[in-house]
């Protein structure tokens, strides 16, 4: 299976924006792309503003909303915590069962996690456990400002300790007028982590499908990513 797992250094770093933008650009390149965000908290998967809806729209997949996100929870909490409040505790075997029903319906998949790499998704499994089970390389989405070096470095080191492959880092949300930390962080992250930065994307003030697609097309090195997946 060719694909990538998009995780973040934290919640709210823009994983869905990056994931959906990559999906849209791959679609432009005539790559048969599908999306999978197995667990969603805090919003209905059917809501037009949900991560699931954006991923479906941007990828143009024929997969249903339920196919893309089989598990949803009402409260905006880590999925395991939100699920426990509703009496729904998900096991990793259930997620993998859903994955097996859709994984052959597209040639390339973008899978998106929830929050950072150590967020608890269900009973006895974290985002990192799901990445390992799916055997997909990771893209780590990081914020650009002060503190991101620490968060990114810890994410990379933890992933490496588990033997997870990291395809690259995307620094998302660069200010129109970057401060000194935003200007110097990318070089330091690359030096410390030894992982390529695939792109530095600007903060979008006007979020539209077109602006997201254009941002990814212009600011993320998808050629490098696809070469790693052995896709010409």
TrEMBL record:
<comment type="subunit">
    <text>Homodimer.</text>
</comment>
<feature type="binding site">
    <location>
        <position position="41"/>
    </location>
    <ligand>
        <name>substrate</name>
    </ligand>
</feature>
<comment type="similarity">
    <text>Belongs to the dethiobiotin synthetase family.</text>
</comment>
<feature type="binding site">
    <location>
        <begin position="202"/>
        <end position="204"/>
    </location>
    <ligand>
        <name>ATP</name>
    </ligand>
</feature>
<keyword id="KW-0067">ATP-binding</keyword>
<feature type="binding site">
    <location>
        <position position="16"/>
    </location>
    <ligand>
        <name>Mg(2+)</name>
    </ligand>
</feature>
<keyword id="KW-0436">Ligase</keyword>
<feature type="binding site">
    <location>
        <position position="51"/>
    </location>
    <ligand>
        <name>Mg(2+)</name>
    </ligand>
</feature>
<comment type="pathway">
    <text>Cofactor biosynthesis; biotin biosynthesis; biotin from 7,8-diaminononanoate: step 1/2.</text>
</comment>
<feature type="binding site">
    <location>
        <position position="51"/>
    </location>
    <ligand>
        <name>ATP</name>
    </ligand>
</feature>
<keyword id="KW-0963">Cytoplasm</keyword>
<feature type="active site">
    <location>
        <position position="37"/>
    </location>
</feature>
<feature type="binding site">
    <location>
        <begin position="112"/>
        <end position="115"/>
    </location>
    <ligand>
        <name>ATP</name>
    </ligand>
</feature>
<comment type="function">
    <text>Catalyzes a mechanistically unusual reaction, the ATP-dependent insertion of CO2 between the N7 and N8 nitrogen atoms of 7,8-diaminopelargonic acid (DAPA, also called 7,8-diammoniononanoate) to form a ureido ring.</text>
</comment>
<feature type="binding site">
    <location>
        <position position="112"/>
    </location>
    <ligand>
        <name>Mg(2+)</name>
    </ligand>
</feature>
<feature type="binding site">
    <location>
        <begin position="12"/>
        <end position="17"/>
    </location>
    <ligand>
        <name>ATP</name>
    </ligand>
</feature>
<keyword id="KW-0547">Nucleotide-binding</keyword>
<keyword id="KW-0093">Biotin biosynthesis</keyword>
<dbReference type="InterPro" id="IPR004472">
    <property type="entry name" value="DTB_synth_BioD"/>
</dbReference>
<dbReference type="GO" id="GO:0004141">
    <property type="term" value="F:dethiobiotin synthase activity"/>
</dbReference>
<protein>
    <recommendedName>
        <fullName>ATP-dependent dethiobiotin synthetase BioD</fullName>
        <ecNumber>6.3.3.3</ecNumber>
    </recommendedName>
</protein>
<dbReference type="InterPro" id="IPR027417">
    <property type="entry name" value="P-loop_NTPase"/>
</dbReference>
<keyword id="KW-0479">Metal-binding</keyword>
<dbReference type="Pfam" id="PF13500">
    <property type="entry name" value="AAA_26"/>
</dbReference>
<keyword id="KW-0460">Magnesium</keyword>
């Amino acid at each position: 299976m060719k694909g990538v797992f998009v995780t973040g250094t934290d919640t709210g770093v823009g994983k869905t924006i990056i994931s959906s933008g990559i999906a849209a650009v791959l679609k432009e390149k005539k790559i048969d792309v599908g999306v999978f965000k197995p667990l969603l908290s805090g919003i209905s998967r059917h809501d037009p503003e949900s991560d699931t809806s954006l991923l479906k729209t941007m990828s143009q997949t024929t997969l249903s909303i339920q196919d893309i996100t089989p598990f949803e929870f009402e409260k905006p909490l880590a999925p395991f915590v939100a699920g426990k409040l509703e009496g729904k505790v998900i096991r990793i075997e259930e997620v993998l069962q859903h994955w097996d029903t859709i994984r052959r319906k597209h040639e390339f998949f973008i899978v998106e996690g929830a929050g950072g790499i150590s967020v608890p998704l269900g009973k006895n499994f974290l985002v990192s456990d799901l990445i390992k089970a799916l055997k997909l390389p990771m893209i780590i989405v990081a914020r650009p400002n002060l503190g991101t070096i620490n968060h990114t470095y810890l994410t990379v080191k933890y992933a490496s300790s588990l033997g997870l492959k990291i395809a690259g880092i995307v620094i998302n949300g660069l200010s129109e007028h970057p401060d000194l930390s935003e200007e110097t962080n990318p070089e330091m992250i690359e030096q410390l982590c030894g992982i390529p930065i695939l792109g530095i994307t600007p903060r979008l003030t006007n979020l539209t499908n077109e602006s997201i697609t254009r941002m990814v097309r212009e600011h993320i090195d998808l050629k490098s990513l696809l070469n790693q997946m052995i896709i010409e």
